[in-house]
Design a protein that fits this description.
Blueprint (H helix, E strand, L loop, with lengths): L21 H8 L20 E5 L3 H13 L3 E5 L2 H10 L4 E5 L7 H8 L9 E6 L4 H10 L3 E4 L4 H55 L5 E3 L3 E8 L7 E9 L2 E9 L4 H12 L12 E3 L5 E3 L2 H16 L5 E9 L4 E7 L4 E4 L5 E4 L17 E4 L5 E5 L1 H4 L10 H11 L5 H15 L9 E8 L5
Parallel strand pairs: 1-2, 1-3, 3-4, 4-5
Antiparallel strand pairs: 6-7, 7-18, 8-9, 9-12, 10-11, 12-13, 13-16, 14-15, 14-17, 17-18
Helix pairs in contact: 3-4
GO molecular function, one term: phosphatase activity
InterPro entries: Bact_Sigma-Reg, CheY-like_superfamily, PPM-type-like_dom_sf, PPM-type_phosphatase-like_dom, Sig_transdc_resp-reg_receiver
Keywords: Hydrolase, Phosphoprotein
């Protein structure tokens, strides 16, 4: 875009300009001879619309204003730094063109004060100066000036520097628009996250309600449960129920994966072990006389395997330890389905692991499930637990394993069941170095006390 320079003539005797002569004004604009007036030049695709010109010389203000107005800018004048600050407090400008040397508040002080104002957007600041030393330029940049223009002002250079400022403002405003979009998107994501988090909190409450009782005294045995998901919800399930007048059934289940899908499957599985409705309990069957009796533990595992593969058709599988305790004899029958080995904790502080591994439920249709048997002595504890205990890692990545779990149990064997659960979690946290546990923790602890029948 080319702007034809126009010389200035002064004939208004009622308002003479005393600051500079006509020849000096023409030199200020870079014009040697008067030329015909050029038509206004419209600025296209330039974010600079409003310009504030600050100069203590009225003549120089008029010269700059005349040139900028012909280029299509909306120009406002200020004769002092204080007047400029007052205007800037009330109106918005895209660019400020200020003389450096002014009485009172100079251009440097004006720039520093202006940069302290709370503004909605960035404003480009150009200092007019005859200073050429690098120290002065550095001083101007330090207080917030964006560019400098040497006096006398060359109109072509003025236009070029304003256009350069316009490009900076365009990028700044484009960045602001993108930041607003990012902020708006993040706000929407946060709102969705908050809604999901509220739903997960409710889901956690519902899952915890699946374990309605965490302790029950059956006279000859005490049962305690622990369920601690690593997130809002988890894939572990523990429970117990009366399987007859002198029989206690208990189980520990660990569904593959974590999160909502695993939690939904645990809720479905919990319904198959109903404590209050024998007709809806997969471990019980009606005998010839009409009373309910226990199904063998390996048959229970087989029925669950069929349900998961044929009816539920879930992509998940689960491991399980399911067992019965005869309250009169201490005899235990159980089926291990890929779950960690059971722990037998004696009154002499001896820890023994019991189990043969077995096949997880829900992997293959023709899986075979076995039955294991043992007998508890008075005072002994039988513990079913999930692999969140033995697979807990320290800072080096080493797992706790069965040996580490045995050490924790021996160290805390004198504690009650509930206190022992707390000690287990505390020692796991110490072992992991305070890291967030990467898996759910669940445990069933049965203490056999036939003398209390």
């Amino acid at each position: 875009m080319t702007v034809k320079r126009q010389a200035l003539t002064i004939s208004d005797k009622a308002n003479p300009i005393r600051d500079i002569s006509v020849s000096a004004a023409n030199a200020y604009l870079g014009c040697d001879e008067p030329t015909p007036a050029a038509p206004p030049v419209q600025v296209v695709e330039n974010p600079v619309r409003r310009i504030l010109v600050v100069d203590d010389s009225r003549a120089q203000r008029r010269i700059l204003t005349s040139s900028l107005t012909r280029q299509g800018y909306d120009v406002t004048e200020a004769g002092t730094g204080d007047e400029a600050l007052d205007i800037l407090g009330r109106e918005h400008f895209d660019l400020i063109l200020s003389d450096w040397m002014m009485p009172g508040m100079d251009g440097l002080e004006l720039c520093a004060a202006f940069r302290q104002l709370p503004l909605a957007g960035y404003v480009y600041f150009i200092l007019l100066t005859s200073k050429t030393d690098k120290g002065a330029v550095a001083q101007g940049l330090d207080v917030g000036a964006d560019d400098f223009l040497a006096k006398p002002v060359n109109p072509d250079e003025l236009r070029a520097r304003i256009n350069a400022g316009g490009r900076i403002l365009s990028m700044e405003r484009e960045l602001q628009d993108k930041n607003r979009l990012v902020t708006s998107t993040l706000d929407e994501i946060q709102a969705l996250y908050d809604s999901l988090d509220r739903d997960l909190v409710e889901a956690r409450k519902m899952q915890q309600s699946l374990v309605r009782e965490k302790y029950r005294d059956f006279g000859a045995a005490e049962v305690s449960l622990m369920l601690k998901p690593c997130g809002h919800v988890g894939g572990d399930l523990v429970g117990f129920f009366e399987a007859g007048p002198d029989t206690l059934a208990f189980y520990s289940i660990d569904v593959s994966g974590h999160g909502i899908a695993s939690a939904l499957l645990t809720a479905r599985l919990a319904s198959y072990f109903s404590d209050g409705s024998p007709t809806h309990n997969i471990a019980l069957e009606r005998g010839p006389s009409g009373d309910y009796r226990c199904r063998p533990p390996e048959i229970v595992a087989d029925e669950l395997n069929k349900l998961l593969l044929n009816d539920l058709r879930s992509e998940h599988y689960f491991t399980m330890l399911f067992g019965y305790l005869d309250l009169t004899t201490g005899a235990v029958e159980m089926s291990q389905c890929g779950h960690p080995n059971a722990v037998r904790l004696s009154t002499q502080n001896r820890v023994r692991f019991f189990g043969e591994g077995g096949m997880p439920i829900g992997l293959i249709t023709d899986a075979q499930f076995d039955r294991q048997q043992l007998s508890l002595l008075p005072g002994e504890r039988l513990i079913f637990y999930s692999d969140g205990f033995t697979e807990c890692t320290d800072n080096s990545g080493a797992m706790l394993d069965e040996a580490g779990l045995a050490n924790i149990l021996r160290k805390n064997s004198a504690l009650t069941n509930e206190a022992l659960f707390d000690a287990l979690v505390w020692d796991l946290d110490a072992f992991s170095g305070g890291q967030d546990l990467g898996d759910d923790l669940s445990c069933v602890m049965v203490t056999y006390r036939p003398d209390r029948r």
